[in-house]
Every structure is written in structure tokens, then in C-alpha cells.
Amino acid sequence: MTVYILKRLLLMVPTLVGVMLITFIVTQFVPGGPVERMMAQLSGVGTGHEAAAAAGLYQGNKGLDQERIEQLKKLYGFDKPPMQRFVDMMGRYLVFDFGHSYYHHMSVAQLVISKLPVSMSLGLWSFFIVYSVCIPLGIAKAVRDGSTFDIVTSSAILIGYAIPGFVLGIVLIVLFGGGSFWNIFPLRGLVSDHWRELSLAGKVLDYLWHMVLPIIASTVGSLAVMTLLTKNSFLEEIRKQYVITARAKGLEERQVLYKHVFRNAIIPIITGFPGSFITAFFTGSLLIETIFSLDGMGLLAYESVMNRDYPVVLGTLYFFTIIGLVSRLLSDLSYVLVDPRISFEGRQ
């Protein structure tokens, strides 16, 4: 097991470097980089004269001479060869120094931390709701396979799966957000403007009140996959010979289901738990955040790409790639913890 973990950790290094190198190369060829955008602003196309003037670079609408262009390149770190910039960047990233955002004028780490409450709220609530609803529902559907309950619930979750989250969000706003029917839930932010003045219970209720519609919109579409996975996993185990034998011995159906079937059928579901739990902290949905005016990771990623904010793009990619690689490793190791029959010794 130790050798396997070390091998996986070592393989993460070239994977991480490869992902960062490909993305870095792509950013070098994308038109409209930070230098070009600032040159356009300094030449009178667009805004940003005030920021440039503060840097002593703005010369009106006369155009920029080569000296000013070189100053801009140095300001954004583009005065060095691409390979040297990449090596320097990876050296800083090793100590988790992601630099400063060109667009937000603050460190990338602080920027990401400021956006995490929204992403964590959406991700963690969706995660817990999906697992707490889908596993019991999937078991009930497996036990009642082919019944009216099974058909009705399958139809309901598949309809929810077919409706895009942003469409459902708009429908919820129209129905319950003061659109054309009832004005029950708020439409923007995680909390109200007077949140700090509320009591502890009031703060909790206010937060939950704001999260109802976004969580419903982001969760409904995820119910079908996990529910059907749970159902099919339990159905496969229920039809095996050891279950028939257990029933022939006179065991109650409840004992057969939860003592024998459950611990085998739950393996493919539980093994995805670590990875899903970790990634839930950093989940971002641009459309959901935009519809409900939530300033989270999804909106940050979109703005960073559109504004060519390379420190944010590359810094968050580095961090989230590490998170993804670690979550995959934890998912693989969870197989061994859940099912002792599985061993990685053969792979060594």
C-alpha cells in the first residue's frame, strides 16, 4: 500500500507540470493579453486611464512608444522569455505564492478565499442533500423494482435531470422570488444586508433562507445519477446467489438487505465519497451564481478568463489540479478501506 501511494504521488508531479505547461502555452497565443489590453486603454480605447496614470505611464491619446511598451511588459512580467517565466511561476507555486490579480488588484489567495463561502455553500449543501436523498431512495427503488413507486420516482428524477439548472433557477425565481407569483425568497447574496445585526439564530435562518432556491436549482439535476447508481448496485447484489441462500435459511428480508446486501452494494457509492466531498468545497457554477447574484468561484473563473487575468487563471488551476489529483487518490484508497478483499499489492 505504501509503495502504491508513493507511486501515485510521484505520478502527480508530471501530471501537474503537464497541465500547467499546456495552459501556460495556450495563454501565450491568446490575443488580447494584459499588455495588449493596457496598451489599448492607454491609447484611448476603453477605460483604465486613472490606473495607468498612477503608474506614470499614461501619455494621452498619442500612442505608446517602445519605451512605454517595454515598461508595460516589465510591469506584467512579460519582459522575460516564456520558459523562464514558466519556471519562475512554478517555483513560486511550489510555496503557494500565486501572485496578484491584474484585474482585482489583490493577491490571488485572498481573492479565492473571499469567493469560497459561496462555492462551499452550494457545493457542500448539494453534496449532503444528494447523498442523503439518493441512497435511501435508490434502496427503496431496488426493493420495489418495477412497482408504481419505482416508475413514478424514476420519471420524476429523470425530468429533473433533463431540466438544466439555470432554467430551473429562472422558474424558481418567477414562482417564488417575486417574479409573477409569490415573493417568498430573496434573489441575491448569501445573507441580507442587515445580517450582522441579527441574533445567532436569526443569522442561521437568514443564511438558509437565501440558500433555498440556489441549492434546489443546483441539486435537482444531480439526483438522477446517484439514485440510479444506488438502485442498480443494490439490484445486482439482490439477484446474487448468496442472497437467495440467506433467504432460504429463513432470515428476515430486512436482515438480508441491511446485513448482507448493503455492505456489498454500497461499495461503488461510498468510494466516490472522498473525492466528491473534497471537490464540494470548491464547486462553482457560473450560471447559478449569475442568476442568483452570488459572487463565487464560477463567476471568478469566467471573469478571469475574459479579462486575461493570468495569475488568477493559472493559480487557481494549479491549486484545483492538486485537489483533483489528491481526491482521485483518496477515492482509490477508499476501495481498500471499504472492501478488504481489494489490494494494490499486485500493482507493485
**What's the CATH first level of the largest domain?**
Mainly Alpha
Overall SS class: mainly alpha
Residue share in helix: 55-70%
Shape: globular
Count of the separate structural domains: 2
Uncertain segments: 47-62
Pfam families: BPD_transp_1 (PF00528)
InterPro entries: MetI-like, MetI-like_sf
Protein name: Binding-protein-dependent transport systems inner membrane component
Membrane topology: Multi-pass membrane protein
Question: How does this structure look, described?
Answer:
The chain crosses the membrane at residues 9-30, 122-143, 155-182, 207-230, 265-292, 312-338. It is a multi-pass membrane protein. Residues 116-331 form the ABC transmembrane type-1 domain. Pfam families: BPD_transp_1. This is Binding-protein-dependent transport systems inner membrane component. This protein has two domains: 2-98, no CATH class; 109-347, MetI-like fold (Orthogonal Bundle), CATH 1.10.3720.10. α1 runs antiparallel to α17 (310-338), α6 crosses α9 and α6 (108-143) packs across α10. The chain has 17 helices and no strands. Mean pLDDT is 81; it is low at 47-62. The radius of gyration is 26 Å and the shape is globular. The protein starts with a helix and ends in a 10-residue tail after the last helix. The longest helix is centred in the middle third of the chain and has 36 residues, at 108-143. By secondary structure, the protein is an all-alpha fold. Helices cover 70% and strands 0% of the residues.
